[in-house]
């Protein structure tokens, strides 16, 4: 089996509402690039990547000359063809590699007639648990703003009733820390039996991170995720706060994982199938974490159904996955895969059982959302459409005003 062609299609799939985060916003849609890798046996493997609100089509198709004639089974050679570590100092292709790796695993699974998780060691669970991913958000159509503690609790309750979540993650770093502490504690009061996690995306100062962590030590926390930036900052918070610390920002490769093993800064590593360059590196990293008793979770970087399938196959094969995974998936209004969005059942999503990744493209929806992308274009992920001229700093001091309703975009 040899690769004969690579195609890329950028789509804009609507979110229920624009979502705020510490470094900007998701502007009411996810811009994702869907990758199709065709082989000489007629099979087509699927991949997916994001781009901070921008298309990655040209970067993907530029790899055609590297990959035409490549055997999809040769995944280690693929890594060096695309993301040689020295060459990557000039042209970092980690997420491009991930999308192609997804597609090659999909091709191999289809060729052999087995699901991806069988190629990765075999599943140890049939479904993967997920946390509700709670965002402050702008009002949009029938979807109300999420700004106040009461609105946040109402939104979490609706998601719990609809999808069965028993773990709730608040994406913070938008409003002043004391205000977000009030919101977080309101979740704890409303859902006393459920577990919680807080993630301000590394924008708190060291003092704020320690103060916030100590203020929630009495709650039913999974962990405190990226309160401050960097391994050294996280290590200092970890020494002063009595709960596990987690990261998805600064343990995203094996050099950083080694540093965390040698001098512990975080207790939980959120593995992202795009940030790490594919599913296989995440499995390898999870093995290192298992050896050194570092917890693992599955991170979400804004997925549609293709990348969600990679997260599910990853979650299926990790015996040391003891935390619910993250997903933006329930914030989407639709998807580009056949059958529509994969359903949640009791807070879990079933692992696909079909060959390869186990999902196929709905060509009609792919075309429709490609047209929507052409109509709307890119957006800057690191800007907030409601705060003209604003941009984030780390640590941040320029918070959104919690007294201003999120009912319109400027």
TrEMBL record:
Key word Lyase present: yes
Q: In which pathway does it act?
A: Carbohydrate acid metabolism; D-glucarate degradation; 2,5-dioxopentanoate from D-glucarate: step 1/2
Tell me the organism's taxonomic lineage.
Answer: Bacteria, Bacillati, Actinomycetota, Actinomycetes, Streptosporangiales
Q: Does the keyword Lyase apply?
A: yes
Enzyme class (EC, first level):
lyase
Under Enzyme Commission nomenclature, its number is 4.2.1.40
Keywords on record: Lyase
Q: What chemistry does it catalyse, as a reaction equation?
A: D-glucarate = 5-dehydro-4-deoxy-D-glucarate + H2O
> Which PANTHER family does the record associate with it?
D-GALACTONATE DEHYDRATASE-RELATED (PTHR48080), GLUCARATE DEHYDRATASE (PTHR48080:SF4)
Q: What is this protein called?
A: glucarate dehydratase
What's an example of a GO molecular-function annotation for this chain? glucarate dehydratase activity
SUPFAM superfamilies per UniProt: Enolase C-terminal domain-like, Enolase N-terminal domain-like
The chain positions of domain Mandelate racemase/muconate lactonizing enzyme C-terminal read 149-244
Please report a single Pfam family linked to this protein.
Answer: MR_MLE_C
Q: Which organism is it from?
A: Actinomadura namibiensis
């Amino acid at each position: 089996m040899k690769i004969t062609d690579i195609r890329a299609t950028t789509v804009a799939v609507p979110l229920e509402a624009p979502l705020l985060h510490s470094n900007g916003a998701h502007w009411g849609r996810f811009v994702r690039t869907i990758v199709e890798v065709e082989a000489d046996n007629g099979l087509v493997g699927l991949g997916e990547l994001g781009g901070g609100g921008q298309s990655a089509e040209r970067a993907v198709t530029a790899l055609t000359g590297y990959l035409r004639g490549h055997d999809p089974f040769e995944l280690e050679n693929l890594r060096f063809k695309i993301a040689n570590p020295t060459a990557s100092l000039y042209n970092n292709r980690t997420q491009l590699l991930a999308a192609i790796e997804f597609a090659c695993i999909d091709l191999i699974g289809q060729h052999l007639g087995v699901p991806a998780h069988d190629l990765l060691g075999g599943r140890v669970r049939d479904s993967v648990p997920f946390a509700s991913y709670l965002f402050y958000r702008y009002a949009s159509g029938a979807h109300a703003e999420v700004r106040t503690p009461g609105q946040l609790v109402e939104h979490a309750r609706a998601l719990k009733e609809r999808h069965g979540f028993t773990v709730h993650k608040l994406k913070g770093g938008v409003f002043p820390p004391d205000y977000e502490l009030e919101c977080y504690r309101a979740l704890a009061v409303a859902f006393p039996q459920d577990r919680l996690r807080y993630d301000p995306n590394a924008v708190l100062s060291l003092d704020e991170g320690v103060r916030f962590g100590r203020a929630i030590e009495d709650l039913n926390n999974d962990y405190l995720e990226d309160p401050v930036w960097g391994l050294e900052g996280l290590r200092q918070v970890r020494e002063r706060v009595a709960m596990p610390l987690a990261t998805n920002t600064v343990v995203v490769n094996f050099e950083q994982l080694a540093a965390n093993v040698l001098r512990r800064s975080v207790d939980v590593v959120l593995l992202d199938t795009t940030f790490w360059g594919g599913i296989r590196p995440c499995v390898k990293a999870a093995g290192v974490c298992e050896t050194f008793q570092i917890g693992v979770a599955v991170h979400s970087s804004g997925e549609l159904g293709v990348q969600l399938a990679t997260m599910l196959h990853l979650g299926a094969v990790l015996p040391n996955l003891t935390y619910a995974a993250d997903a933006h998936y329930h914030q989407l209004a639709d998807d580009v895969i056949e059958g529509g969005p994969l359903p949640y059942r009791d807070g879990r999503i079933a692992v696909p059982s079909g060959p390869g990744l186990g999902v196929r493209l709905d060509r009609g929806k792919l075309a429709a959302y490609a047209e929507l992308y052409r109509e709307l274009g890119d957006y800057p992920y690191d800007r907030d459409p409601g705060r003209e001229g604003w941009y984030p700093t780390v640590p941040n001091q320029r918070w959104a005003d919690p007294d201003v309703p999120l009912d319109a975009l400027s």
